[in-house]
Amino acid sequence: MSLIQGYVLGVAQTADLVLAVSDQDASLRAWSKEGALVLEMQMPNKKPAYSVAAQGMLAAVGTRGGGLFLIDLSSATVLHALEGHTNNVWSVILDGDEVLSASYDKTIRVWDTVSGACTQTIHAEAAVRGLAANEDWIVAGLSDATVRVFDRASGDQRHKLREATGWVMSVALDNMYMVSGANDGKVRVYAVPSFTLVHVLEGHTATVSSVAIEGDSIVSGSDDKTVRLWNAHTGAQLRVLQGLSHYARSVSLLGSEIVSGSYGKSVRIWNANTGALKFALDGTEAAQPITDVLEALELDAAAAAAQEALKAALANGDPGELGRCKLMIIGQGAAGKTSTVRSLLGMKPEKVHISTVGVELRRTSAELWSEEAFDSGFKRQAMRAAALRMRTRKRPTLRSRISRRASSMLPGRRRLSAQTFVAEEEVELVAEAEVAQRFDIAEIENMAGKTQSGQTISFTIWDYAGQDVFYTLHHIFLTQEGVYMLVFNMNELLQDTELALDYLSFWLNSVKLHAPKAPVILVGTHYDQAFDSLQAVEAILRNDLQALRGVKLVKNSLQKVSFFPLDNMSTAEDRAVELRNAVERTASKLDSVSQKISLRWLKVIDDLMMLDCDHVPFEVVQELAEKYHAGDQTDELLKYFHELGMVVHLRTTDTLHDKVVLNPQWLLNKLARVIADDIHVEQIYYDEKLSDLELDDDFKLLRDKGIGTFALLSFLWDDEEVAYLLEFMRDTMLLSDWAFSEKLLRKSRDDGPLYLVSSLLKTARSDDLDAKIAEMDIGLTCVLDFSEFFLPDGVFARLLSLCAQYSGDIGSRKHAPQLAGRQAIIRFGLSVFALEQIDDKIWIRVEKDSDKPASTLKMLVSMFQGARDAMFRGLPWDLLLQSPKNPSILVSYDDIVDAFESGVESMPAIGTKNAKLADFVPFFEDGSLKEDEEENQDGTAESPPSFPLSSDLQYHVFLSHKQVEAGDACNLMADKLISRGLKVWVDQRADGNLSREQMQNSIRASKCYLLFLTKTVFGSRSVCMELETALQAKRPILLVHESDPNRVGFANFSTYPKTAPRNAKHLFREAESMPFQRRLYLAQGFYNELVARIEGAEAN
Q: Where are the WD repeats (predicted)?
């Protein structure tokens, strides 16, 4: 074998081999991990080789002039010459059945390893030097000093990162971080998937030519003749590997081994844990047939391989398919939902009907279909991850011989070979001494011989009560992910078709609203009584159930019907076998079931469930996540498990964020004590403790008028987590504060806080309220029209809650709202209006002599939009206006706005009549009724007041923010404050690029400084400079924070004092931050308070 001739520009490694390519001799070489040279071959085009990637016994090599070759290492033969690039190929990746390549011809190409065909071409706009990818993203380092991030499926560009100041020479990517190395000598670390910069690693003194990442470690090679090891989480430099005589141009990291290639015409293998040099290879080593390496590997003990694979999977937090599905059982009360669950679980039938309260949870698996205790899935998925690693060592075919280049490993498919792995102690998921005790090593070997499709799906069954009173509660827990099972009584469908179809339509529409892509299985019960009527039932469903349109229906192909008939009274344990099979088949097709998540996430949940408690503080979850190096993903992992129904965690307020419900049944049971049906109301009524605490009158008030006392709610919740439960019901609009006195209560009770639970009024009727509405002298009327789809249960009740809360906040507390199930009369100060739900419409009628009726309508529309966006997002609706001159004329709000803009005098109304535009002018006296949809409009017609400024000041307030997270919000805030008479400085209103000095002078010329808090605001150098200037100038500092969890800048409030500069931490003790409000009915109070704070601000 010959000495390496030329620079080593590319290296790669697998568990068994080290590979390197060199330019002058245009060669690929491979060594065993013991340093024996097992392969040497020249590239077919005899051009300098620049890049290499490896998977098992497969390699890809890129060369000068666009050459790209796929090589079988076991036979040293070229499988494919991949033709398409027209310039040097500087980076290649092998990933499953695909090769990804990057070239100076400004393209990235994806190739099929089996056929050699190019399947995708991405135009990068500049020469591509570095390439990395995972299941979702392709990342490229470019000659224009940018890193481009592309969607892997579509090839569309999603991010353009501009932090580098020279060529980006190399990139690496895993499931947590993206790393880049550039000509400016810096290594940059970005969070995935946001691609926000989290670390700049400084230490190299020349170009960083190559980077690699695995687990918690980053390796970088530089022209400063060093290789450096860094901690990916903290950015700390761990080790400097020295001794190179020339530039370190390529690096690879796999387990405890670092491989580097340099201009010194050599390849070095280092121990990542100690920094010790193991081998320096130059091509003159003793030769060994590559087949000997393969034969030696086969001699490894299977049990040892399984254990090492398990240890590696645990240490790296390998991703695996969770295989968990939420099965939601819905339908009319007494349709047989709970009996259907019993049939699924092989339980004996219950002859006596048992009514479900709220929602009942059970757990099972498709393997046994019997009720099981909760299992986080951690143990099973850890064993599957280990088996997956082992399976990659068995190389029977090209497709299973895969273990790609370490420097660009993908989450879910990286580090697949089972090799000895030494993990840092602090990321150990299971103590090494416990591994063999806790896991069945033999079962891992067995699993390694099976296909991945052998995954067993676990189900969390949510049995939703069918009584009407619970419907408003269900909207909180109907989620996008999972399978829906809609149960109906076939006898009732045949005998009372119209009513049964109404219930089926309600549930199908609810599913389409909350989970439009979720599969639905229809189950017809009482098969024993309707066995000869299946076709009659089928005809009704297909011909008369219009709500089936647009539903992803799971059909019964065996019996050729659209539903699955079931006899729940049968004693046969397999009475639901066909239904089970349908559920399992359907669930196996869901992306959420096959989605891969890190074992670190599962270990967090596993440890939490071992606590065996209903709920824990958020900080407990945070500590566990940090222990397993997932601390920066705590909110993300909780959101994932929340959607699966495994935990409940809301983020909209600090109270909600700080509580994680580990047992959702606990929460459901608490809510069902307040929102209860008649059967369970009786149980509470006869509870002796109710009388002992003198709460009988309180309970009657709750049931009759929907008004609850704090004492009663505390009793219903057993004095447990009352503050959290109140906040949960407020946030989901099940409850609102009731600021009005109640004569029926004892004086001592009336002095305490009262709450409105408006959904309890659903069936309440009031003849007196009917008469009062009929007697009103109506001025302006508008209609919230849902007839295009349907009006979900709970919309009207939540609108009542918001109205009652607002009425108490702004008006005299002597005029309590008059409420019933589908109607109300409410007063906002001097404005009086009626609400009525009639079929699929909500009518809003304002009394003629009300103050500012158009403003009242605008406020009510804003409240509805707030309720819609919070609980019924995606619900189609239209706003209709009724002519003040002719009540029979209705027009669409959007149509009349278009007509006004067109300058016409009349327009077609709904139906056969025409409308005069002049009649509708009063609706627009306060601007747009849909101001919440038009955030830049203020709607303030009056001249703003004037707020004086001292002669040395130019502005009342300077708005400081991070543009990408709060630019729109601060622009809107500036508009609102200016319309209220304030002079505001915000960078979006300034001309040209501002210098640091100009920004500082503007702060000194402002009465006060407002800091808009968002997730990474303190990561902005500009913001920190502005804040420092404000502190030095002793300007009063006001705080406002993002309050919408759906916005990119949202973060838990505790994030801000933790990440704030040291000299600014005192602000969070001295100043109360205001949550930013966009909705009109909340924004008015927000801006009134903000203006008052600005006006009252005094210099320190």
A: 82-121, 201-240
